[in-house]
Write a structure and sequence with these properties.
Number of strands of chain B: 2
Organism (chain A): Biomphalaria glabrata
Helix content of chain B: over 70%
Radius of gyration of chain B: 61 Å
InterPro entries (chain A): COMM, COMMD4/6/7/8, COMMD8_HN
Strand order of the largest sheet of chain B: 1-2
Strand content of chain B: under 5%
Largest interface: A-B, 42 and 43 residues
Protein name (chain A): COMM domain-containing protein 8-like
Order of helices and strands of chain B: HHHHHHEEHHHHHHHHHHH
Strand content of chain A: 15-25%
Radius of gyration of chain A: 25 Å
Pfam families (chain A): COMM_domain, COMMD8_HN
Oligomer: heterodimer
Structural class of chain B: mainly alpha
Order of helices and strands of chain A: HHHHHEEEH
Strand order of the largest sheet of chain A: 1-2-3
Number of helices of chain B: 17
Number of helices of chain A: 6
Structural class of chain A: alpha+beta
Helix content of chain A: 55-70%
Distance between the termini of chain A: 36 Å
Distance between the termini of chain B: 56 Å
Family (chain B): Belongs to the CCDC22 family.
Chain lengths: 192, 643
């Protein structure tokens, strides 16, 4: 799973920092996993060098993800952490239990997004076209729907669609039928 | 009268007349005040009129003003009597009161039709939107560099508005972490979670990566919760209750169903993949491999995921090994010769490969045929083996029976008897057992029937209760809707009530009106009584005078007949005549007194009215004004002559 040599040296480095710092770090890492964000290494620059920081970060990230993904109990986590102090192990176990829900949701989301694009956000603007080059008075309301699509390679692409009223109602009705069929699928699945 | 005056003064004040506060009744209105208020009323009623708002100093101008006022009021339809300049300049309280009442009625009513019907919330919303857009449109244009991110403040009505599209931002939401179930003390929160909430959890405004993502993230978190709870309620109300399981059991069963479904699907798909032609499988798996490699490079880790990603990966891993072994030898090697030689080599290779391929396919076909033969042979052998086994068993059984009989043969008869006894005892035992079984079976069957009946009853009862629950739920919804509607109505009416002016105390008026009506009724009753009295008295008078006349004529005749003969009777007759005359005079004087008294009353009333008209003071004023007019006329004449 993890390069064991590197992990062992990382464990030593972890022991160098205080408990408070490790607690902060674990919470920050858990939050950054949930939110796809990066952590500023500046706050910990006094304790570790940049290379060690990367090692520790990847190690802790790996621990958190496997612990939540495979639903490890506290003993398994402490086994995987190996030669760390008990107080540090307890902190890491606590962090895992606190963030379990959120990390689990995030991992499930990532898994369900395998091999195809997923709609992440959408935004709409209501416009009124007053006139065009062919007609002087064309009071037509249009909806501009911009969808933020997260593709399977991780990049985000924005797809913009302009709909008039009938198309919008078609879209809404087709989405409603989708939701109904999903509901039927989940609630009336065959008996075990 | 005071009420009427108060109402008149109040309405005059409300249209903008400058009436001083200590003036409460019309008696205190001076000429200037009367004229100013009447002019104001006419202006409000008729719009633009070219009338001066105060009494002009010149007498002729005053005269003209009074005449024009009288004309206007008569044009409006006043039917209360003759109007002229004198009604305004030399005023009389009752007439002024009548005129003011007429004018106040003619004042245009304040537009309160809008507040008559309770307004719906959507109409209010639309009106609010239109007023806001009007105020925004009425402001002058500002260039965009004077607005801070499109925000512009305004002073009346005070507020701010956003203009332009420069400040629009993308909608991007992040998951936010909100502490749950803290408000309810009975919910136990684990200690480390609580310490996390207290020490480490940043505020929601700090949780998003960019500040502009805060609003979208919170909106998304909120709407997600609302949608989930609504979905769950719908599902629970429709299907969950019908299944008669508790909530946790229902959720558990649903979870298991979904897991099983997903597993079946994945297995089916993987089996399908194996059946497809190997070439397409290789290309598909190639694609998947490259995808996975790129994903690994960009850091989207999928090696550590949930259970199903893991099973997926396992299956793909197996196929991966296959494909790796197959891809290896299929990769062509690059050559460094010249192009022609390359082509030749390639052609030779292709030919050799083709011959190999054909030989191999021929060999494959032969081998397949042999495999088929062998498999059919194997099947036949298996069948034979099975049949042989069966016959062996039968023969074993027959052998055993025969061996037994052989053993028993030496003492054949005794053994036969023993066997017969055995058979009898066993048959008897059978009969016993069957009786016992019957005896045992009946109560059990009865119990079973009873229990099944109970069960069906309970089911039907449970269905009834479910339907009742559904009915109650519907009623609850209706009652909640009703309550909401009534609250909205209440709010609207309260706001309307606050909007309405409270200067005029309507309840006092209604009370007074009702009192007046009661008074009038009493008066009417009294008048009726008096009329009845008067009529009865008149009838008595008539009957009494009739009686009197009749008795007089009777006595007259009677005595006159005897008067010719006797002297004493003549005297009596003369006395009778004198008596009758005197009493007649008496009656006539009484009637005259009555008439005179009535005339006195009438005259007194007229004296009062005339005294109210302030004739003397008005006369003095008129004479003074006449003098003034004469003087003005003289000066004008002099001017004209002088020119």
């Amino acid at each position: 799973m993890m390069a064991d040599l590197k992990w062992e040296s990382a464990l030593e480095d972890i022991s160098k920092a205080s408990i408070q710092d490790i607690e902060n770090l674990c919470h920050l890492i858990a939050n950054s996993i949930c939110r796809d964000g990066a952590i500023d290494p500046g706050q910990f620059s006094s304790i570790w060098s940049l290379e060690k920081w990367w090692q520790i970060q990847t190690g802790l990230r790996g621990v958190l993800k496997t612990a939540v993904g495979k639903n490890w109990a506290n003993d398994q986590i402490s086994n995987a952490l190996g030669s760390l102090d008990d107080s540090y192990k307890k902190i890491i176990c606590d962090v895992v239990s606190i963030h379990k829900e959120a990390l689990r949701n995030k991992l499930i989301q990532d898994t369900t997004a395998v091999s195809h694009s997923v709609l992440a956000d959408f935004d709409w603007k209501l416009k009124l076209t007053l006139a065009s080059d062919k007609l002087a008075s064309l009071q037509e309301p249009l909806l501009q729907l911009s969808m933020d699509v997260r593709q399977s390679n991780g990049k985000r692409k924005i797809v913009t669609v302009e709909l008039d009223q009938s198309e919008l109602s078609k879209l809404i009705s087709s989405l409603e039928s989708c939701s109904k069929s999903v509901q039927q699928l989940t609630t009336t699945a065959p008996q075990p | 009268m005071e009420e009427v005056d108060r109402i008149i003064v109040h309405s005059l004040r409300s249209i903008g007349c400058d009436v001083e506060d200590d003036i409460q009744s019309l008696r205190q209105f001076g000429t200037e005040l009367i004229i100013a208020t009447v002019v104001q009323c006419l202006k409000v009623i008729l719009g633009d009129i070219d009338l001066p708002s105060s009494l002009p100093p010149g007498m002729s101008a005053r005269f003209r003003l009074g005449a024009s006022l009288a004309n206007h009021v008569q044009d409006l339809g006043y039917k209360g009597g003759d109007l002229g300049y004198q009604t305004f300049l030399y005023s009389n309280e009752t007439e002024i009161r009548k005129i003011f009442m007429f004018l106040v009625e003619k004042l245009p009513k304040e537009s309160s039709q809008a507040a008559d019907e309770p307004i719906g919330a959507s109409v209010l919303l639309q009106r609010a939107i239109s007023t806001e857009i009007n105020t925004q449109l009425s402001m002058a244009w500002l260039p965009s560099f004077l607005k801070d991110k499109g925000v512009r403040t305004r002073s009346k009505p005070p507020g701010w508005q956003i203009e332009g599209a420069c400040c629009l931002q993308h909608y991007h939401s992040c998951p936010v972490f909100i502490p749950k179930s803290i408000g309810n003390i009975s919910n136990k929160v684990p200690k480390e979670l609580r310490s996390y909430y207290i020490k480490h959890l940043p505020y929601v405004t700090n949780q998003t990566n960019l500040h502009r993502d805060l609003a979208p993230s919170i909106m998304e978190a909120n709407s997600l919760e609302v949608a989930v709870s609504q979905d769950w309620e719908n599902e629970w109300n429709q299907i969950g209750l019908a299944s008669r399981l508790s909530q946790q059991e229902f959720k558990k069963r649903k979870y298991e169903k979904l897991l099983k479904m997903i597993k079946d699907r994945l297995q089916q798909d993987s089996q399908l993949q194996e059946k497809i032609d190997s070439q397409t499988a290789i290309s598909d798996l190639n694609q998947i491999l490259t995808n996975i490699e790129t994903q690994n490079k960009t850091g989207n880790v999928k090696t550590k995921g949930s259970r199903f990603a893991h099973t997926e990966k396992l299956q793909y891993a197996k196929d991966e090994e296959k494909t790796m072994s197959q891809i290896g030898p299929a990769v062509p090697e690059k050559d460094k010769d010249t192009e022609e030689e390359l082509e030749k080599k390639r052609k030779e290779e292709v030919d050799s490969l083709r011959t190999e391929l054909s030989s191999i396919t021929a060999g494959l076909e032969k081998l397949e045929l042999e495999v088929k033969k062998f498999s059919t042979g194997r099947q036949e052998m298996e069948e034979e083996m099975a049949s042989q086994k069966k016959s062996i068993e039968e023969k074993n059984a027959a052998y055993k029976v025969k061996k037994r009989t052989l053993d028993l043969l030496p003492e054949a008869e005794a053994n036969i008897e023993k066997l017969q006894q055995l058979v009898e005892t066993s048959s008897q035992r059978l009969i016993n057992l069957s009786k016992q079984w019957e005896a045992h079976r009946d109560p059990l069957i009865q119990q079973y029937n009873e229990l099944s009946q109970l069960n069906s009853k309970r089911e039907s009862e449970a269905e009834k209760k479910l339907e009742e629950i559904k009915l109650f739920r519907n009623k609850m919804k209706e009652v909640a809707d009703d309550a909401r509607r009534k609250e909205e109505l209440h709010k609207q009416l309260v706001s309307e009530y606050e909007r309405m002016t409270k200067d005029v105390n309507r309840s006092a008026y209604t009370r007074k009106i009702l009192e007046i009506v009661a008074n009038i009724k009493k008066q009417k009753q009294e008048i009726d009584k008096i009329l009845v009295d008067t009529k009865s008295i008149q009838k008595e008078i008539n009957s009494l005078t009739g009686k009197l006349d009749r008795t007089f004529t009777v006595t007259d005749e009677l005595i006159f007949r005897d008067a010719k003969k006797d002297e004493a009777v003549k005297k009596a007759y003369r006395f009778l005549a004198a008596l009758h005359e005197n009493f007649e005079q008496l009656i006539s004087t009484v009637e005259d007194t009555g008439v005179v008294m009535r005339e006195i009353k009438d005259l007194e009333e007229q004296v009062e009215i005339e005294s109210n008209k302030k004739v003397l003071s008005n006369l003095e004023k008129i004479s003074v004004d006449l003098q003034q007019m004469k003087k003005e006329n003289a000066t004008l004449l002099a001017k004209v002559k002088g020119k």
